[in-house]
Structure formats: structure tokens, C-alpha cells
């Protein structure tokens, strides 16, 4: 058995070396992408110039990293993926398969995710957990909220961009999706303003890659913060599963045979897990909104 496996080892090592080289190449291309650099510059400017005070509630500012790292990262990854399409007739005959090249593209999400983690740490430095602006959530729940609003979107956005780039031909698809997500997040938040105790409305608000958890009413006491229903921890799990779905959908392009069957089975399992996490995110947390 050892002798039979021996010839495959050099091929496997060569495959890993080729994948690492390809991933490093895509990472370098992503790092100098002007769209990603624009988003990185914007969020750096916002965080550096943030005085750390005069913020009414946490959701008033925590969404900026998601927009500039996740949203701009999605558009950068989309155009990076699409830029490889004209060369597919040539690269398609190389030993590296299309799913392997897609996996290499997915690794570029490490860079914006690392930037998101740094932004999260800087944000907590400016606005330490436990402040009144976080509402009635516990300190661990506050960390979960910030993680879901800052770090995870920086990971999921580029992964979604790769999936879009593999399956959608329309050049402006990433921008349309970015605007759609932005509009959807705000749209599904509106019913919570009028029906804050409703579990179905909470589920609708959770059915998104980004969600708000606090509210400061426009009228009334400026220090009045409302912590909405919904579990930050299960919502974080929902987001991570969405990231996994984006990767699997991207890898499905060009996969065939046993690999395609495995990806489809994995998608079915992960989709079931996503529905469980979404349900728990919408029904967990506070039984009703809590004012502070």
C-alpha cells in the first residue's frame, strides 16, 4: 500500500505548491486593486479621525467598516475574478483546475478580513464595550455585535464577490448587489420600528448579511437606547455560514464528477444549518426590546 501511494506524493506536493503560488499571486493583485484601496483608505480615515465621543448609539457608526471593507472588497473581488475570464481558454488547459483557481481567489478574503479585525480592535479602543451606547446587551454580546458588523462582513463581502464573478456575466453585478444589500438592510429594519416585539419581524431583520441591534429614538431623551430582539451570537453563526455558502457556490463553477457531488451535498447541509442559525438568531436574545 505504501508503494502504491508513493508516486502520488510528489504530485500532491506539486499541486500544493502551485496552489500556494496562485493564491499569493491573486492576493498581490487584490492588494493593489484601486477599489479595495479606496475602501481601505476611507475606513482608515474614518477611524483615525473619529474622536471617540458624541456617538448616540453604536449602530450609528459601526456599519462603515462593513460598507468600505466588505462592500468595496466584494466589488474588488468580483472584478478580480472577472478579469480572469478572458484567459480561461488558456488557463483551462493547465494542470490547475477551475475550482482550484477559484479556491485561490477565495483566499484573497484573508486580507480584508485582517483589516476588518484591526478595524474592530481600533473601534473597541475608541468605543470600549460596556458603554451606554451599546444598550442593554451584555459585554460578550456587544463583542459579538461588533464582530458581526465589522470583521465578518470584511470576510464575507470578498467571498460573495468571487461567487458573483464566477456565475454572473453582467459587469456591474457587484455594484448592484452592494446597493441591493444596503437598501435591503435599511428596508427590513423599518418594520422593527413599528413592531419591535414581533418575532417574524425580527426574523426578517436577521435575514441579511448585516443587521442593526440598537436604536436611539429621534425624539425624546437623547440617552434613551433601545436594544432590539435577536441573538447576536446566533446571527454571527448565520453570517459565517453565509460565507461558507458563498465559497461553495463559487467552487461549484467548473466542478464535475465526484467533486461536484460533494459540493452539492455540502451546500445542502450548510443551507440547512443556515436556516437553523437564522431561526435561532431571530427567536433568541431578549424576549422583547429592552430600553436603557
Approximate helicity band: 55-70%
Task: Compute the number of structural domains.
Answer: 1
Strand content: under 5%
- DSSP E strands, number: 3
Q: Label the overall shape.
A: globular
Biggest sheet: strands side by side, in what order?
A: 1-2-3
Question: What is the alpha-carbon Rg in Å?
Answer: 21 Å
State the distance separating the first and last CA atoms.
Answer: 67 Å
Q: Total number of helical segments?
A: 12
Catalogue the unreliable spans. 1-8, 89-93
The succession of helices and strands, N to C, reads HHHHHHHHHHEEHHE
Average per-residue pLDDT, rounded, comes to 87
* Major beta sheet summary: 3 strands, antiparallel
Overall description:
The protein is mainly α. It has one domain. Helices cover 69% and strands 2% of the residues. It is built from twelve helices and three strands; from the N terminus they run ααααααααααββααβ. It has helices at residues 2-5, 8-31, 34-49, 63-82, 88-91, 98-106, 110-126, 139-167, 173-194, 199-206, 232-252, 257-283; strands spanning 214-215, 226-227, 290-291. The protein has a three-stranded antiparallel β-sheet with strand order 1-2-3, with no helix packed on it. α4 (63-82) runs parallel beside α8 (139-167) and α8 packs parallel to α11 (232-252). The longest helix has 29 residues, at 139-167. Mean pLDDT is 87; it is low at 1-8 and 89-93.
